[in-house]
Write a structure and sequence with these properties.
Elements lengths: L1 H5 L13 H10 L4 E2 L5 E2 L2 E6 L14 E5 L2 E2 L2 H20 L3 E5 L5 H5 L7 E2 L3 E5 L15 H4 E3 L15 H8 L10 E6 L2 E7 L5 H20 L6 E3 L9 E8 L1
Parallel strand pairs: 9-10
Antiparallel strand pairs: 1-2, 3-4, 4-8, 5-7, 6-8, 10-11, 11-13, 12-13
Helix pairs in contact: 3-7, 6-7
The protein binds flavin mononucleotide.
Length: about 250
């Protein structure tokens, strides 16, 4: 679970370049097209770290930062897959000791997308990255408790989760995932060996909420993978629930 505990939004970067191993890692992720759960593909692009980042973001990022981004279909599924694909990259970057921060509202959209969308493609958000003085954040973060986000059979009915539950890491990985304005819109409902992912739509602007859902899915997978648990994503045909949007289910 190290990557999950180590990752946090880094807004202050060192005024130094990445080392050769880190650069090589980043070069590699731009070499192949990456695919999300819902079939959307992203070619990851990188702007190398520099100090002229004000052109891309509005002053929030300090020090020497680069930017990671890509174009994806302007659709709900496109946004979910973008969150999923980029968060997987972010967890890999965390392992390489590269700091990252999602920027959904505070980046210069015109710089990346031009005056309008590129056909039906868009850059939904960008990720600042760079060298940083890593401090492991063991202290409790501002996050909802399990009882607010993970449910048994139906929404609202909290699931009791113990430390030795095989899915504990997967639940914890979702709980600690980053989200726009820290709204944590994911709601998980466990029904036998299926976990349904819902988005609480009361949370945040829908588009960013969709990115958050993809991020939550990437974190859940991470928690399963480190425990060598097999899974498959499925789309179930189920009734909609007011104020919640059903996204996907994972079958264990
Ligand atoms: C889709 C998305 C958009 C975000 N946009 C911004 C942003 O514009 N500016 C910013 O400073 N942080 C942004 N964040 C970072 C969140 O504020 C941060 O993930 C959250 O507060 C949790 O903190 P942590 O990442 O340190 O665990 C964004 C996060 C996500 C997932």
């Amino acid at each position: 679970m190290d990557m999950i505990y180590d990752r946090y939004s880094v807004r202050k970067y060192l005024k130094q370049d990445l080392n050769d191993k880190q650069k090589e890692y980043l070069d590699n992720i731009t070499k192949y097209e990456q695919q999300g759960i819902l079939g959307n593909k992203v070619n990851v692009k990188l702007i190398k770290p520099n100090t002229k980042h004000l052109k891309f973001s509005y002053g929030m990022i300090r020090g020497m930062a680069g930017y990671m981004y890509g174009y994806v279909d302007y659709s709900t599924n496109g946004y979910i897959d973008y969150g999923y694909i980029m968060e997987k990259n972010i967890l890999g970057m965390t392992r390489m000791n590269i700091g990252t921060c999602w920027l959904g509202g505070t980046f210069n959209k015109k710089f990346f997308c031009g005056e309008s969308k590129m056909g039906n493609k868009i850059v939904p958000a960008v990720i600042a990255y760079g060298a940083y003085e890593s401090k492991r954040k063991d202290k409790a973060r501002k996050r909802k408790g399990f009882e607010e986000i993970i449910f048994d059979k139906e929404l609202g009915n909290s699931l009791s989760i113990s430390r030795d539950d095989v899915l504990y890491d997967a639940y914890e990985a979702v709980r600690l995932a980053p989200s726009a304005l820290n709204k944590q819109p994911w709601r998980l409902v466990k029904k036998d060996n299926i976990i349904r992912f819902y988005q609480n739509t009361k949370s945040v602007e829908m588009n960013l909420g969709n990115i958050d859902m993809g991020i939550g899915m990437a974190h859940f997978e991470y928690g399963l993978n480190i425990n060598k648990i097999n899974y498959s994503w499925i789309k179930e045909d189920i009734e909609e629930i007011k104020d919640y949007i059903y996204c996907m289910s994972i079958k264990i």
